[in-house]
Amino acid sequence: MRRCLLLASKGAGFAAPNPLVGAVLVHEGRVLAEGWHRSVGGPHAEVECLRSFGNGTIPSDAVLYVNLEPCAHHGRTPPCADLLVQRKVKHVVIGTLDPFPQVAGKGVAKLRDAGVQVTEDVLVDPCRWTQRRFLTSVGSGRPYVILKWARSADGFMDMHPRYDRAVQRISGRTTDVLVHAWRAQEQAILVGSRTVLNDDPSLTVRHVKGPHPLRVVLDREGITPTSSKVFGKDARTLLFTAHARPELSVDQVLIGANEDPLRRLLSELHQRSIRSVLVEGGAEMHRHFLDQGIWDEARVITGNILFRKGTVEPKVQVPVTATRTIGDDRIDLHVNPASPMNASLLNVARWD
User: Fold this and answer.
1) Cβ proximity of 129 and 350 under 8 Å
2) Residue 299 CB coordination number (10 Å)
3) CB 240 within 8 A of CB 253
4) pTM of whole model > 0.85?
5) Which of 256, 250, 226 is nearest to 238 (CA)?
6) CB neighbours of 33 closer than 8 A, spacing ≥ 6?
């Protein structure tokens, strides 16, 4: 099952909005074949695994391990449960059930009705942690929210006064590469208008190979310059604003004066099948997410630079769950215990 999870992680950034799934076929302690869900619309993990095995007869005492319940419905691809029955797999070990309404136990039922032995809940918490984006989206009706910021050693997110419109570097090169890997793993990346105005970020994936996330900008007052990099054509952008801006050739969503902008934003992303969003700034936006409790993880990077004055970082009122060190940088992971998904997973929460 741990091998299934390792395989599943290879689909991060490519499989969404589908879940991350890996499958391993084992016989007498030896791996016969394995596969994972590589991209949305492509073959599921079970299909990849059995294709890798080939068309030969599967040993009757072989076991297929998969970290998520096989699907039982026709979506972009045929049901995996049907395939397992057709290929005469006699024993399937499942990490966790799929809460998606069209599956939700139906895959297990179809297998058992066909005489397949099914073992459930193997490493269920690690499996749910790997699947936390998908499970949060399906169960809570909103994307999985990851807050991320960098702070100086003395607790500032930038230095004042500012003399130019550019990102002020805090972390080292290796950490910057990691941040771009984070971007590639999530479907959307969110910033507020002040971050666009002050930093002029591109919000694209550049230091690693991977897909660009959907760039989301919350700018109710329309203060972001039309020349901002985030409005360029190198990636898609979704603008949330109170007044339409016809001069911008990007997708726009209008927010009413009485609407909660964060909840409207998350609702709109959910309707677009966005399973996760990485919030990169700024400080005020992070505080709103923290104050309203609508966040799941916070990833806080601390560099060794001193700013002495500037924008004070927001405070996360929950303990650090895990820490890693990269060069001179420390990165703390905070997991929100009030998150519907993470409340039972604090014991297995870790860096991916």
Assistant:
1) yes
2) 20
3) yes
4) yes
5) 250
6) 24, 25, 49, 50, 52, 53, 54
Residue 191 corresponds to which amino acid? V
Helix (H, G, I), strand (E, B) or coil at 249: coil
CA angle 264, 265, 269 (to 5 degrees): 115
Tens digit of each residue's pLDDT (9 = 90 or more) over 193-237: 999 999 999 999 999 999 999 999 999 999 999 999 999 999 999
Contact assessment for residue 81 and residue 51, using Cβ atoms and an 8 Å cutoff: no
- Whether residue 161 is preceded by a cis peptide bond, meaning omega within 30 degrees of 0, is yes
- Structure tokens of 129? 């942690």
DSSP 103-115: TTTHHHHHHHHTT
Tell me the β-bridge partners of 215. 189, 237
Distance of CA 84 to CAs 50, 63, 109, 299, 318, Å?
A: 9, 11, 13, 40, 44
Identity of the residue numbered 232: G
- Convert the pLDDT of each residue in 111-170 to its tens digit: 999 999 999 999 999 999 999 999 999 989 999 999 999 999 999 999 988 888 888 899
In this structure, the strands spanning 329-335 and 322-326 are antiparallel
Q: Side chain identity at 253, as an amino acid letter?
A: V
Q: What are the structure tokens assigned to 253, written together? A: 């969503």
Active site residues: 46
